[in-house]
Design brief:
Blueprint (H helix, E strand, L loop, with lengths): L2 H17 L3 H9 L5 H8 L2 E2 L4 E4 L8 E2 L3 E4 L4 E4 L3 E6 L3 E6 L1 E3 L5 E6 L11 H11 L7 H13 L4 E7 L6 E2 L2 E4 L9 E2 L5 E2 L8 E2 L4 E6 L7 E2 L5 E2 L3 E2 L5 E2 L3 E3 L5 E4 L3 E6 L2 E5 L1 E4 L10 E3 L2 E4 L8 E4 L3 E3 L3 E2 L2 E4 L3 E3 L2 E3 L5 E4 L3 E7 L2 E4 L3 E14 L3 E3 L5 E9 L3 E6 L7 E5 L3 H28 L1 H5 L1 H7 L5 H34 L5 E7 L3 E5 L2 E4 L4 E9 L4 E5 L12
Parallel strand pairs: 3-7, 11-19, 20-24, 25-27, 26-28, 27-29, 28-31, 29-32, 30-33, 31-34, 32-35, 33-35, 34-36, 35-37, 36-37, 37-38, 37-39, 38-40, 39-40, 39-41, 40-42, 41-43
Antiparallel strand pairs: 1-6, 2-5, 4-5, 6-7, 8-9, 9-10, 12-16, 13-14, 15-23, 16-22, 17-18, 21-22, 23-24, 42-45, 43-44, 45-46
Helix pairs in contact: 2-3, 6-9
């Protein structure tokens, strides 16, 4: 071929290879067992024989490194193939020719890989293949029948071939018992709602597991066994001593099933390859769109804030280093906030333990323990089955409604402007919630009775007996069903009224709780103790309001001191 034509061909090769996929990847896919004929045809486009030009340098120095099977001619600047094979470019760094006799990296197997020869410009023949196989220097027996069959398939079958032509013995690499995690640690972009939209607040940032849940498994150990390569040398087996993961707290393995399970309801954690389940977790930043809503089987420590619109629920304590603002927070333990709690349209703070914060502003709080606030409670709705205590800082309670079963303690109640501030003691949160349910049920029952009466009509109520006697036989079952519903509703209402009266009677008599204000009570403060009400009409210095049995009245006395040890936790 004239030198000019060779240069043109080299340029064509260069542009062709730049546009095509990674030839090494194609080559290795075939070696690993893929029979996809498109891969063999891809090889055909890159097939070269000795002395074929594959690239031309623009200068006399090889800017691209000539690798295995490639020689560089300084005089012409051409890169040429040194043997039969497939051109592979390593970007603009190196070029090599991959041989059509593939040898496994551990050298225990040799494979003949040929493209369909009808797809190449210069096909090879059996003598070329035999010569290449002989040149490798294989010491184990060669399967000459496989060599011949594979070559014939490539020459006349219209398809490529990948056949094993020599095989030693693969080593068996050993390993210690492996602890592997089956749990999928995935943070979602969001969760689809029933309406078909994506709620980006639902991301699954915390990974909860239940007691007894399988979170991993053991892989059995493997003893190492040496192999033999195709050149007659020993292949020393390796030993993998890395257990992948180690078992930490609250996880254990089952020697029979090989399962690794959690021993508690908690939060799965992997730190330094130590697999553990904890009853708490830490979030190193704000709860926001990066974390999504948090739902945890244990306690949660949040190093930042809970930002507006997000939800945090935990089966343990919730501890927040910053603020909670217009969020939903529900804890089976305590809610402890270093900053303040700021309410909003959809906010709700509920705790089965205590609630502690620096301040409350427009915040709805429900706690089955104490509510302990350092500085101020402003325009908030606070319900506690324990005490409401606001005395360690400024201790100001202004606006809103406070209700506590076991007492309210503050330094200042109300303001000189006469802002309405309600304080209720002696009412159980649980009883109040049940009363709320009863009132809702009575309201619903009343509406249902009204609908049934409208369905029956006025004629029935004027003379039920005459109405039923004129009723067509087909409508009698329907009317009987409506009358049965009426009887059921009336019975339920009777039971609900009795329960309501019992709860109200208990609220009137059960409490010895007080409203204790240590510095000043302003006009506008309204105090409820049991069934009694006391409206403060003028400014009063520190005083304790209590229920006087003998007079059935609210009395006043000097406030008793509350020891900090009684409300520090």
């Amino acid at each position: 071929m004239p030198e000019k034509d060779k240069e043109v061909k080299a340029t064509q090769f260069q542009f062709s290879f730049d546009r095509e996929s990674n030839i090494r990847q194609v080559y290795e896919l075939i070696a690993s067992g893929s029979k996809d004929n498109a891969l063999f045809e891809a090889l055909a486009h890159r097939f070269v024989k000795p002395q074929d030009p594959i690239l031309k340098a623009l200068v006399k120095d090889p800017g691209i490194k000539p690798g295995r099977g490639v020689i560089f001619e300084k005089t012409s600047g051409l890169y040429r193939a040194e043997n039969f094979g497939y051109v592979h470019y390593e970007g603009l760094v190196a070029v090599e020719v991959l041989p059509f006799v593939y040898v496994h990296p551990e050298q225990y197997i040799a494979m003949l890989i040929l493209p369909p020869m009808e797809k190449v410009k210069s096909p090879i023949f059996i003598e070329n293949v035999l010569g290449a196989v002989e040149a490798i220097g294989i010491k184990v027996p060669i399967d000459h029948e496989a060599v011949t069959r594979g070559t014939q398939d490539a020459l006349s079958g219209g398809r490529g071939c990948a056949v094993v032509i020599a095989e030693g013995k693969a080593p068996v690499h050993g390993k210690v018992p492996k602890v592997k995690v089956d749990y999928i640690f995935k943070v979602e972009a969001g969760k689809e709602t029933k309406g078909g939209t994506i709620d980006f607040r639902e991301r699954g940032f915390v990974h909860n597991v239940r007691a007894g849940e399988v979170i991993g498994h053991y892989d059995d150990p493997v003893e190492p066994v040496n192999g033999m390569d195709i050149f007659g040398s020993v292949i020393k087996a390796a030993m993998d001593k890395d257990p992948v993961y180690r078992l930490g707290k609250n996880v254990e393995g089952d020697q029979y099933t090989k399962d690794i399970i959690s021993t508690i309801d908690g939060i799965i954690s992997i730190t330094n390859n130590l697999l553990s389940v904890y009853d708490g977790t830490e979030i190193e930043k704000d709860v926001d769109f990066s974390t999504g809503n948090i739902e945890a089987q244990g306690s949660v420590v949040i190093k930042g804030n809970i930002t507006p619109g997000f939800v945090v629920r935990a089966k343990g304590d919730i501890i927040v280093n910053g603020n909670i603002e217009d969020a939903v927070v529900e804890s089976a333990g305590n809610v402890i906030v270093q900053g303040g709690i700021i309410g909003g349209e959809k906010s709700s703070i509920k705790a089965h333990g205590h609630v502690k914060a620096s301040f409350l502003r427009n915040a709805p709080i429900e706690s089955y323990g104490d509510v302990i606030i350092d500085q101020s409670i402003m325009n908030s709705q606070v319900k506690s089955d324990g005490r409401i205590i606001c005395i360690t800082g400024k201790g100001v309670v202004l606006g809103g409604k406070l209700s506590a079963t076991k007492g309210i303690f503050a330094n200042i109640a109300g303001a000189s402007s006469g802002t309405a501030t309600e304080m209720v003691v002696g009412r159980s949160l649980e009883a109040d919630n049940r009363l709320k349910e009863i009132f809702e049920s009575l309201k619903t029952n009343k509406e249902n009775l009204k609908k049934i009466k409208m369905a029956l009509g006025d004629e029935y109520f004027k003379d039920p007996k005459a109405f039923l006697s004129r009723l067509p036989a087909g409508k009698i079952p329907m009317v009987k069903d409506l009358l049965t519903q009426v009887a059921d509703i009336v019975k339920k209402n009777t039971d609900l009224e009795a329960e309501k009266n019992t709860l109200l009677d208990q609220a009137h008599t059960q409490s010895r709780s007080t409203v204790t204000i240590y510095q000043t009570i302003f006009e506008g403060v309204i105090i409820f103790i049991n069934h009694l009400k006391r409206a403060v009409s003028k400014e009063i210095s520190g005083s304790e309001f209590f229920y006087m049995d003998e007079y059935d009245a609210i009395g006043e006395r000097a406030p008793h001191k509350l020891d900090p040890k009684e409300f520090t936790f």
